[in-house]
């Protein structure tokens, strides 16, 4: 898990995000996908921009790193199982 978190932090910092802002960004990503599970990654990125996260673009790889750091219970709630299969109709989960 530490390697995933380190990779995610390096990825976001490499996109220009301040390290101190990363936990808040990840929290906004988590809250947004819980509240709006049918958003695609581009729509999710647009929603995050509307929340003020205009300095970083959410891409598929970064999104998957973020998901990998979530607790298994949250992934289950989102319809993404640890076996890599998706039970959700969320467009990002396909």
Overall description:
There is one protein chain. This protein is mainly α. It is built from five helices and no strands. The protein is globular. The relative contact order is 0.17.
Brief descriptors of the model:
94 residues
The run of helices and strands is HHHHH
Mean pLDDT over all positions: 83
Provide a count of the helices: 5
The percent of residues in helical segments reads 55-70%
End-to-end C-alpha gap:
24 Å
Question: Which regions are unreliable across 5 or more consecutive residues at pLDDT < 50?
Answer: 82-89
The coarse overall form would be globular
Radius of gyration: 13 Å
> How many E-type strands?
0
Strand count, sense and barrel status of the largest sheet are:
none
Give me the secondary-structure category: mainly alpha
Oligomeric form: single chain
Q: How much β-strand is present in the residues?
A: under 5%
């Amino acid at each position: 898990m530490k390697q995933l978190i380190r990779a995610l932090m390096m990825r976001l910092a490499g996109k220009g995000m301040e390290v101190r802002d990363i936990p808040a960004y990840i929290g906004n990503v988590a809250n947004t996908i819980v509240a709006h599970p049918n958003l695609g990654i581009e729509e999710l990125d647009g929603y995050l921009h509307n929340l003020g996260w205009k300095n970083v673009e959410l891409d598929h790889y970064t999104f998957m790193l973020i998901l990998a750091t979530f607790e298994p219970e949250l992934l289950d709630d989102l319809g993404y199982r640890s076996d890599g299969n998706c039970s959700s109709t969320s467009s990002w989960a396909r």
